[in-house]
Amino acid sequence: MKREQLLSLLDDEGYLLDLSSWSKPLAMQLAELDNFQLTEQHWEVIEIVREFYQTYELSPAMRPLVKAMANKYGPQKGKSIYLMKLFSDSPPKQAARYAGMPKPLNCL
Amino acid sequence: MMSDTIFQTLHIINKTSSHSDLYTDCFKTLLPGDAILLIEGAVYSACGQQVCDLLKQQVPLYALNIDIQARGLTQRIHSQVISIDDDTFVSLTCQYKKSISWF
Amino acid sequence: MANKNLLLIFRNPPFSDSSNRDTLDIALACSAFEIPVSLLFLGDGVLQLIRGQQSKTLQQKNLLNTFNALAMYDIDQLFVLQSDLQRFELIAADLSIDCQLICETQMAKLIRQSDRIINL
Questions:
Q1: Complex ipTM value
Q2: Structural domains in chain C?
């Protein structure tokens, strides 16, 4: 997909306009756009964000994201420091963006 | 003779019983041949003992099924309440000479 | 300065206006800012919590799903009047989230003890 075409799918803040248009390849293209490399660890977080949204119809802020990570992957990965190291920007925002979910509200 | 006492006015209520004025005002205007239809927030009034005041009015009592389902009330609706789908809602408004909204 | 504690009151049934959504958003924001928050479901507000709501029939988002997220945001001070449950012939198990059942006197105390109250 061309850069212009990709950008046309996003809102002003870079979040996907149509949540149903998300796919893994699209997430990778979004990351490429940011010169960001998605590893297996990132995909775990992205998956959690997508599950959280399906359950609660809400993108998680930091605290619930940490809690959801701990519930699924244990205490080592259920820490904000772990997420902060993984993502350069705010973890809830960046993960929501690659997960094709809306920008989390009230995120610090 | 019959035509004066059937399908007169359809009274449509859309608020919960917490809006008690709405219900008392509606009840004051009821005549034989009228019917009551509960939609939106009013479908809670079709549950349990709350329905008694409505049943006392001695007119057919309808409630809109999509609103019942949306609010998780399917198992709670009183057996004397007639649950209707959207098409029947439309038919009722045609069948009755007029409708009045108590919103 | 210690954080003021906040009481949020829900008084409307589901699918009425945006006040329940707005008040819930405030609750979630408070969690991010570590502001202690209590939620009171009063009168018709308790109807928002009934299990088994199927908003799909109305082609709307189901706000109840988002209420279920409160525990994930560490919001656990949730209150319902026993008399409101009785009025609607509900029991605690009919509600989708765990709430403390209180009487009117306890509600008055709750309001007295709160530093700020939002009642949209």
A1: 0.88
A2: 6-118 (3.40.1260.10)
